[in-house]
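Mods, move this if it's the wrong board.
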Amino acid sequence: MATIVNTTEEEPMLAVVRSTAQLAWADAGPEVADPEVARLCAEAQQHLLAARWLDMATLMLASADLLLLSPSAPDKDLECTLTVTCNLVTKAGSEDEALEIAKLICAKLTHQPADKTTLRIKVLFSLYNLLPSLSGKALVYRKALELAATAGKAAADCVVPTFKNIDAFVAYWGIGKPEQRELFLAVTRILKDHKGMTKDYFKFLNKYLATFDGSGDDADAIGAAKEEAAAAIVEFVKSSDLYQCDLLDMPAVAQLEKDDKYQPVYELLKIFLTQRLESYLAFQTANSTLLQGYGLVHEECITKMRLMSLLDLSGHCSGEIPYSAITKALEINDDEVEYWIVKAISSKILDCKVDQLNQLVIVSRHTVRVFGMPQWQSLRSKLGVWRGNIANAINTIQANKVTEDGGQGMQGLMIR
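Not the wrong board. Structure tokens:
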């Protein structure tokens, strides 16, 4: 955002009103233009003297339309006008007045946003920094996301770097679930078609869906999340990097089980998270058109489902998996077992050793496909045992040290 350096004696706000008014009436001739410019400047002077900053913002923004919608208008003129207008929030007599001014600016910048989108977003970020109100900051940031979602890659690139701080923003603003929901949804709309951001897209879909708990007001709003719930399932199935998720535990996803349109997608998620390759192949035979409609490639699904089946075997074995069990579950030949073991290890979902002599895979660690409340409870129990063992070890060490120190003291007394 440009910094205004006043090089004349005229107040910057009046200078902006004068220059934009002159531009607006340039084609009308001096007989018409001069009185109109004088009238607008006089009106601005009255607002300035009375400290009517909201009225001043309205007047200045009316002139900004000429610059916003004119392809030939220099960006520097528009940036100058909006910089001065944004600074009005620092003059406001209260946070409420500053917020109203900010809303006017946001409304102007998000109206007919096809032109100069990147500059509009830049102005909004400057407005964000000037606002004292946390709720105002949250509003302005969401408006910047809305603008970015309507424009191309250049505009999206302006906001994408800020996404890594979203959790900190949410905590700082102190916004509730409905506002968080709007925020996360806006982020997903930007990331959906942003190249190389599929993992982030899936992450924010999860954040959005997690804001629904299925109770209270959510019971009415949750129906609007069906499309995003299905999108999250498809992204999980597509991804060659994701082998674990908690989508099945989310009410926004669970509602798909009874939905005529999305029930097959929910069934596909259950197969990938709780069943093996055989179930997927049966599903694909009956739903090949549906899979193609969601852009899912059958061969890629088979690859992922084989790895998922291997994880399922690892979870049900006692640390050792016979080759024969792997060939059956993955529907492969004996000489392909080690290929899939290596593939699982390289995907960082399995740690194991291969006993070729005994035709066994000895598993030391594997990814759990579903990590929900039961898994958290199990982890808590294991950490409790671990904590108890550490405490016992510390007590034993301290007791031995006391005994050793006491023995040395007695030995000293005897020498004397």
